[in-house]
Amino acid sequence: MERTLCAELSSAGASSPCTVFGWVAAVRRLGAVTFVVLRDRSGTCQVVLESGTPPPTEAVVRIAGVTAAEPRAPGGVELRGTSVEVVAAPAVPLPFALHRPEIPAALETILEHRGASLRHPGERAAFAVQAALTRGFRRHLDGLGFTETHTPKLVGGATEGGAEVFAVDYFGHPAFLAQSPQLYKQVLVGAGFERVYEVGSVYRAEPHATARHLSEYVSLDAETELFAGGGAGALIALEQGLLSAMFDEVRAACGAGLERLGVPPLPDPSRAAVVTLAEALRVTGRPTLDPEGERLLCARLGEMVFVTAWPAAERPFYALEAESAPGLTESFDLILRGLEVTTGGRREHRYERLTAAMQRRGVPAAGFEDYLGAFAHGMPPHGGFAIGLERLTARLLGLPNVRRASLFPRDRHRLRP
Amino acid sequence: MERTLCAELSSAGASSPCTVFGWVAAVRRLGAVTFVVLRDRSGTCQVVLESGTPPPTEAVVRIAGVTAAEPRAPGGVELRGTSVEVVAAPAVPLPFALHRPEIPAALETILEHRGASLRHPGERAAFAVQAALTRGFRRHLDGLGFTETHTPKLVGGATEGGAEVFAVDYFGHPAFLAQSPQLYKQVLVGAGFERVYEVGSVYRAEPHATARHLSEYVSLDAETELFAGGGAGALIALEQGLLSAMFDEVRAACGAGLERLGVPPLPDPSRAAVVTLAEALRVTGRPTLDPEGERLLCARLGEMVFVTAWPAAERPFYALEAESAPGLTESFDLILRGLEVTTGGRREHRYERLTAAMQRRGVPAAGFEDYLGAFAHGMPPHGGFAIGLERLTARLLGLPNVRRASLFPRDRHRLRP
Question: Which of A59, A223, B167, B178 matches a 20 to 30 Å C-alpha distance to A10?
């Protein structure tokens, strides 16, 4: 029993016997004839039934029939059904209708019933885009000699500091969920991998619920040696090339679908603005680059703005201070359409300067022994960045809330489904 | 300042000015001349210094020079160094020597000093293989219409049962680390993705420390609709094709390196044996397929053995019972060179039968509401499997302990580095 996908029906030509499987998206009776819109992972197709009981909406079905040319059907071909088998009928109705361009429900309801809301092709599209973004991320970095790594999320010591960590009972000992793979990816560069990346979950016990925060999210982390020199500028150039490759992958894999959803064209990373934080504050007229400042910055300078030269006090202890401007670091943020989606920078690789910076800032060495050990053995110059996958997806698709770009989002108030 | 990788030196030809960066693997004086073996991410090269102080072993260096033909050097070309810059010298000596084929230290010492032990090319090779395995996994499944997904590791309810879960304090509420993405991947198949995969961390609070268990490991999960029918046999065929593609990727990316390390050829998944559990027990003469049984099974039937027809009592509640043999499930394990590396099977997709199976086994519905909701809305027939990445890597490379295939392993007694 060969399966034909909805999207393949038109290339089957007319008068071909075909079997389709999927979900009943809509049923419409016109006299003695019933039109069924069938939905599968590839899209939808039109099925005409001339007899029998039509299947219930949202049932999982198998329909066998013969193709026929029909200019009004998607792809110009419809299936004249000859047999319908209901594989699984809904025992309870879905909490909302799925046949409109948007699900007619509040975000909370959409997230509460995720198994149902993801049946909507528009809702699922974000995750096809997400898969293409990660594929592009890996492919581009693989081509540049990076190695994919997996570092632990269960950590024993301090990570990046701050109180926003989740505590875990580890066989009776205290442990924490990693806030980022930062320290591990640096150690791996120094261990001889030179260039590493990771696509993995990270955890922030954010005490507030906003449209831009998740307790658990996917971080696209990259870290590279900078043997040949370079600071924030070299890393920004790396990220620009990387994002261009990722967006190319999205266009290739999901271009038609995005157009159908009315998603505006993806930005061109090579045309991103690059400004210092001082310039960004002057342009926005704000004392800090807070969420409102991020919005203003993109309204004034364009969809993508890299902000450089952050004061050391506003960056972690491992940020490298610029030779030419002490007190300012070789670090950057990327603001995409009004939202910070990347933080990165060159790191301090010299053991003595790193430990001095920790002392100056009152960061205790306890918990950092393994990290500092790598520097004591000698580290190459290096730097990197992290891209928040859900934030990036949400900004590209124009989703106002980052939760919409997470299959099963976790936040202050949500631990299920 | 263009960088030349060690592996590129031979293709630079003779009399070319080149700059190499990396780690000093070995220093050997012969009269007035010093030979330096330089190591970078691509391999090693030979540098000859005729003057100056030689750099210390394991220092990070930049060496500029001119290439010269030298039959005794790797690749037939050496670098006659004209300037050496020590980028970072070790402030403390490494805990072991790295110039031998094996690190002369116990496993515990190797893991304790991971930043140092990973400098050894043999130690790093496992992770190049691991990266190739995951790349092949994704590429093959992408080609079959699967979507990559990311499901939460922070979960509120029961997962697969058992006491081996880590507890998390989630804003004052109890939460757990997911033991597998099992329930989520099934829900996603039914939500219309049809075919999903995930490469992500999973957590088992294993109370015992063995050579085959980790508290945190990477699971390669795949789940697919089985619209066109099929049970364990169809899923085994899917995994055979998948593993073949993964092994092809390893051979293409790491073949030469594996040969140098003396790794035996990878097995051929298409030639795997497939036997029922009853047959496996008969062949091994053991009452259960315990670790010793797994070893005996492969000793008698070959490197790869799929074991099918497990009794329902030995599988989770969601395992589908075979139509032809009630009490036995459409499930399987894959035993690779004496170690279980995959568990999989077709799942019960019918709501009434699933809830009945839960009741029969005393599995409470509490905590499974979201999972059961997906079935109440109608699920297609489906199944899948999970491959333990570290176990697979260890078996392919002949590593006796699975920890050796984890960058920073976590076990009963180890929460760092």
Answer: A59
B6-88 and B115-405: identical CATH topology: no
Search chain A and give the residue with CA nearest B40.
Answer: A192
Residues of A in contact with B115 (CB under 8 A): 187, 190-191, 370, 373-374, 377
Q: Report the Cα A383 to chain-centroid distance in Å.
A: 22
Query: How close are the terminal C-alpha atoms of chain A, in Å?
Result: 35
* pTM to 2 decimal places: 0.97
Decide if the complex's ipTM is over 0.95.
Answer: yes
**How many helices (DSSP H) and strands (DSSP E) are in chain B?**
10, 16
Superfamily of domain A6-88: Nucleic acid-binding proteins (2.40.50.140)
Between chains, do B151 and A407 touch, taking CB under 8 Å as contact?
A: yes
CB-nearest to A152 from B113, B170, B216 is B216
What are the residue ranges spanned by the domains of chain A?
Answer: 6-88, 115-405
Q: Which of B8, B18, B42, B60 to mutate to test the interface with A (most CBs of A within 10 A)?
A: B60
How many Å apart are CA B219 and CA A200, to the nearest integer?
12
Q: Which of B121, B177, B227 sits opposite A21 (nearest CB)?
A: B227
Q: Which residue of A has its CA nearest to B202?
A: A153
Could you give the 3-state DSSP secondary structure of residue A345? strand
Contact A114 B187 (CB under 8 A): yes
Which residue from A minimizes the CA distance to B417? Answer: A370
Q: What is the pLDDT along chain A (417 residues), one digit of tens a residue?
A: 689 999 999 998 899 999 999 999 999 999 989 999 999 999 999 999 998 899 999 999 999 999 999 999 988 999 999 999 999 999 999 999 999 999 999 999 999 999 999 999 999 999 999 999 999 999 999 999 999 999 999 998 756 666 789 999 999 999 999 999 999 999 999 999 999 999 999 999 988 889 999 999 999 999 999 999 999 999 999 999 999 999 999 999 998 889 888 999 999 999 999 999 999 999 999 999 999 999 999 999 999 999 999 999 999 999 999 988 989 999 999 999 999 999 999 999 999 999 999 999 999 888 899 999 999 999 999 999 999 999 999 999 999 999 999 999 999 999 999
The class (CATH top level) of A115-405 is alpha beta
CA A368, A369, A373 angle in degrees (round to 5)? Answer: 115
